[in-house]
Amino acid sequence: PQIEITTLTDIPANTGLGSSGSFTTALIKALNSYRNKIIDKSELAKIACNIEIVKLKQPIGKQDQYISAYGGINSFEFYSNEKVKVKSLELKNDTLSDLEDNLLLFFTGFSRSASKILNDQDNKTKKNDAVMLNNLNYIKQLGIEIRKELLKGNTKQFGMLLNDHWKKKKKSI
């Protein structure tokens, strides 16, 4: 049997919103559903990562595929041995309501090539570039702090940390 796949999007490419990872994950899920096959979230994310990172040779991380496969609000820990630890963040209803009421997403009008940026990042990391390694460690620590603040229900501090991340990101682009 033949199938036709059509896609539509409300956002342009190269926005940094994880659209390729989301698309790949959704397509794999849809094809499995079409074949009446159940695929678990971990396997779905692994297959999507393999397609984009290994087969298409994209210099990207795994976070977009994993969040697309799992959905919700989670904490992910990625290890060099390919292990991924996923933990759902059990947030209070008040915290979830506050996030829903106050989080807004804006298109800044800017786009950039993630591949170019991530290739540069990968090359500098492999060369033990101190500035790049410090930046990556800063982002990791920021993620840990964001998780702590969300679990405490401190959405104001969560927002401040997101703002810090945005400022750091703008400096490095």
Q: What's the arrangement of secondary structure elements?
A:
Blueprint: H1 19-34, H2 41-55, H3 63-70, E1 74-78, E2 84-88, H4 93-102, H5 114-126, H6 130-152, H7 155-172
Antiparallel strand pairs: 1-2
Helix pairs in contact: 1-2, 1-3, 2-3, 6-7
Give an overview in words:
This protein has 173 residues and is mainly alpha-helical. 60% of the residues lie in helices and 6% in strands. Strands 1-2 form a two-stranded antiparallel ribbon. The model has no long low-confidence stretch (mean pLDDT 91).
Structure described in brief:
This protein has 173 residues and is mainly alpha-helical. It has helices at 19-34, 41-55, 63-70, 93-102, 114-126, 130-152, 155-172; strands at 74-78, 84-88. The chain is globular, with a radius of gyration of 18 Å.
Shape by Cα distribution? globular
What is the tally of beta strands? 2
Q: What's the end-to-end separation, in Å?
A: 46 Å
Structural class, by secondary structure, is mainly alpha
Q: What letter string, H or E per element, gives the SSE order?
A: HHHEEHHHH
> What is the count of helical runs?
7
Residue windows where pLDDT falls under 50 for at least 5 positions: none
Q: Kindly report the spatial arrangement of strands forming the biggest sheet.
A: 1-2
State the helical fraction.
Answer: 55-70%
Mean pLDDT: 91
Proportion of residues in β-strands: 5-15%
Largest sheet: 2 strands, antiparallel
- Specify Rg, calculated over alpha carbons: 18 Å
